[in-house]
Design a protein that fits this description.
Elements: H1 3-7, H2 12-45, H3 51-106, E1 108-112, E2 118-122, H4 131-165, H5 179-196, H6 204-217, H7 221-231, H8 233-246, H9 252-272, H10 278-289, E3 294-295, E4 308-309, H11 310-316, H12 325-339, H13 350-355, H14 372-381, H15 384-391, H16 394-403, H17 410-422, H18 438-452, H19 466-475, H20 477-485, H21 505-515, H22 519-542, H23 551-575, H24 582-604, H25 609-614, H26 621-628, H27 634-645, H28 664-686, H29 693-718
Antiparallel strand pairs: 1-2, 3-4
Helix pairs in contact: 2-3, 3-4, 4-5, 5-6, 5-7, 6-9, 7-9, 7-10, 8-10, 11-14, 12-14, 12-15, 14-17, 15-17, 17-18, 17-19, 18-21, 19-22, 21-23, 22-23, 22-24, 22-27, 22-28, 23-28, 23-29, 24-27, 27-28, 28-29
Length: 724
């Protein structure tokens, strides 16, 4: 910026733009709230079918998200414009003051020159003593102000342009409080990209700086996109491969540092893929182009003659963060094509494909990074949309699930499947209600079918997968209950699922039986069943109009189903001879507490499993409103408390609720106590006029016993079980 431009600058148009953007932000704040609390909330609750259940709900959800992004982007633009205006006005005023002081105090005049320069001359002759020194000082002061103004103007322009480039269509989620923070993010991105150009030359101090910067900016879209684009796709892969080789065998603090860098770099790159900037489009293309390239840090190293493949390097940086769905789709299709190439039975051969050769440990953790499907599956576990899209292909699903038997990717695959069928990413905190789509229910049905297979299905459940399968079961308790009860129970087992009757009863039974063998899987089933049963009992006791019949009939049906599910779990434990194993008992109790803690946090936010199942499907408006507000979460919360507090049964000092060390009769009694107490809690809470406590307890006892007996028969008919 030259002297005359700043001296005579009129910022009225910029001020008008700030005012206009302020109005835009104010309007967007209102629209975003309406979209979130009204439009999207109603769409989530609506009991739609057909096109509305899929296209309309998804469109509304994405539209609400666009309003949120628009508000974020608009706020950032307004902040940057206002910050820049304040700075430029300040520089202009200080320039005028400097010019005035120079003339009045030191008798110096300043003239602009063609081309943007300026000169300082004495205003009177002869020149007073010290004029040259004063002129030089004024010149330096003016140059400093012009430089600061230029920086403010140019960095604001760069930041605004970068924000605009983040999304080709719609809006991005770029968030910055002022011009300085946006400019700093871009500057730091340039600096880190330069450092990463050659990992071999990074000093320990530079590596530490890189670590701190990635940790600070990993969620910043401006920084992430600028860093990745500036570094380049191939260069990103080379950087991580070189860094891994340089620090091979790291231990102690060095290992912790590399683990931290891997996590934060993964999240930074994930954030970067959300950008539509031209540089990021080129980055994505280059990563895909280099997927089969062998990356070597030292071409002359005889121990690693082949080097890590691009797939292996990139996948090792996919363990954390939510990568763009389109990028994951393109990357996954290429990777899966190669993973499915080896001849032989479905799923076989993939281990030999990736495990051959002496490749550097690329992940600094339990996994060695050789199997790129592990990292890809972990990326899918953080992006439910991409996970569902990937597994929607039946051949892909069958191959990936079968490959779990021959590889170490089973845990990563299970997490990806969990994300796909539940709609929640691994580690994501649920803040909204996401009904199961038909596609999700169809995939859950396939998962159940795979685990239910005689001879082979049980092998899919282990310490790495059991918790995920259990979480799936808990999330699908409405559909599971509907499947077990059969037709005619629709108005008893409420569900906001788009296909509540889409599961197979036989596969459901076997899936629960196999999953219950794992302590975490068993805990998830028990907690999920308890929450859904408690919520369902409370709903019908609180508002009898939900069921067009006697409330006691609804209570009986709910209790019988609880008996069936708890019976399947109990028989699974007994058949596996887990009972009496002290270590198994310890694992089960720990798992139950862990799951209880998680579900309690959900319930406290009004997003409990049972609460969700009731939203939007009840015929009574009052019931819908109550469910949304978390009204039906109270009794469910008390049921989880009982599980976590391990209340004593019948005075047995060493017998806790759902103690895995007990026998089948103890498990039955535990389920009995839990279900009865949930109903009694609801009767007390809502002052039921139809039900009394004693009669309800006896009714539940009989119904639950009937369900328990039926579970034994169902298992005999569906599963080869060990002799007593």
């Amino acid at each position: 910026m030259d002297l005359e431009a700043l001296r005579h600058a009129n910022f009225s148009l910029l001020n008008t733009a700030i005012s206009d953007w302020g109005k835009v932000v104010k309007s967007l704040t209102t629209l975003e709230k309406q979209a979130r609390d009204d439009m999207k909330a109603k769409a989530d609750k609506a009991n739609w079918a057909g096109v509305n259940a899929t296209v309309s709900r998804e469109f509304i959800s994405k539209t609400a998200g666009e309003f949120s992004d628009a508000l974020t982007q608009g706020t950032s633009i307004h902040n940057i414009l206002k910050d820049t205006y304040d700075e430029l006005v300040g520089y202009r005023d200080r320039l005028k003051q400097a010019l005035d002081d120079g003339f009045e105090k030191d008798k110096l005049s300043v003239y602009g020159e063609q081309g943007g320069g300026f000169r300082v001359v004495a205003a009177i002759h002869p020149e007073p003593p010290g004029t040259k020194e004063k002129a030089e000082a004024l010149k330096n002061r003016i140059q400093e102000l012009l430089g600061q103004a230029t920086t403010s103007d140019s960095t604001a322009a760069r930041a605004l342009k970068a924000i605009a480039e983040q999304a080709d269509y719609g809006f991005s989620g770029v968030k910055h409080a002022d011009r300085d923070s946006a400019a700093d993010a871009l500057q730091r991105a340039d600096a880190m990209a330069m450092l990463a150009k050659d990992a071999k030359k990074m000093s320990p101090q530079e590596l530490a700086e890189f670590q701190r910067t990635m940790a600070k900016y990993k969620d910043d879209e401006l920084f992430a996109a600028q860093f990745a684009a500036k570094l380049g796709g191939k260069e990103t892969l080379q950087f991580w491969n070189d860094l891994a080789e340089i620090h091979a065998g790291a231990k102690g603090e060095e290992l912790k540092q590399l683990q931290s860098i891997q996590k934060d770099l993964s999240m930074t790159l994930a954030t970067a893929t959300l950008s539509d900037a031209d540089g990021m489009q080129e980055w994505k293309k280059k990563v895909l182009d280099e997927a089969t390239t062998a990356f070597r840090s030292n071409p002359s190293d005889p121990l690693r003659p082949n080097g890590a493949m691009g797939y292996q390097v990139m996948s090792s940086l996919m363990h954390h963060g939510k990568y763009d769905a389109e990028f994951l789709d393109a990357y996954g299709k290429k990777l899966l094509k190669m993973d499915m190439a080896p001849a032989g039975q479905t799923g076989m051969g993939t281990n030999d494909l990736w495990k051959t050769g002496n490749v550097t440990d690329l992940v600094f953790g339990d996994d060695d990074g050789r199997d790129p499907m592990v990292g890809f599956m972990k990326a899918l576990s953080h992006n439910p949309e991409a996970a569902l899209e990937t597994f929607d292909d039946k051949k892909t699903f069958e191959h990936v699930v079968e490959s779990m038997r021959y590889t170490d990717r089973d845990g990563a695959v299970a997490h990806a499947l969990e994300a796909a069928v539940t709609g929640y990413g691994d580690g994501e905190k649920a803040t909204d209600i996401r009904p199961h789509s038909k596609e999700q229910v169809a995939l859950m049905k396939e998962v159940m079918h795979s685990v239910a297979q005689p001879e082979t299905g049980a092998k899919l459940v282990n310490k790495a997968t059991g918790e995920s399968f259990g979480d799936m079961a808990a999330a699908y308790m409405p559909e599971i209950n509907r499947s077990i009860a059969g037709q005619g129970a629709e108005s008893i087992f409420w569900s906001n699922s788009q296909d509540p009757g889409g599961l197979d009863k036989l596969d459901t039974t076997r899936f629960l039986y196999e999953t219950a063998r794992d302590p975490m899987g068993r805990a998830a089933i028990i907690v999920g069943e308890s929450v859904y049963t408690a919520s369902s009992l409370e709903a019908h006791i609180a508002q009898p109009e939900l069921f067009d019949g006697k409330t006691e009939d609804a209570v009986k049906t709910i209790s019988k189903n609880a008996g069936i599910i708890e019976g399947i779990v109990g028989h699974s434990v007994a058949d596996a001879k887990i009972a009496g194993d002290l270590e198994a008992e310890k694992d089960a109790n720990t798992a139950l507490k862990t799951k209880g803690d998680v579900v309690k946090s959900f319930l406290s936010a009004g997003v409990g499993v049972g609460t969700v199942a009731l939203v939007g499907t009840a015929p009574a408006v009052a019931a819908t409103g109550a469910a949304v507000s978390g009204f039906f979460g109270g009794i469910a919360g008390m049921s989880v408390d009982r599980l976590m507090d391990a209340q004593q049964i019948d005075g047995a000092l060493d017998q806790a609720l759902y103690d895995s060390g007990g026998k089948l009769n103890d498990s039955l009694e535990s389920a009995n106590v839990q279900t009865q107490q949930s109903a009694v809690d609801a009767i007390k809470e809502h002052g039921s006029k139809e039900l009394t406590e004693d009669a309800t307890r006896n009714m539940i006892r009989q119904a639950l016993q009937e369900g328990w007996n039926d579970s034994d028969t169902m298992l005999e008919d569906s599963h080869a079980r060990p002799a007593a």
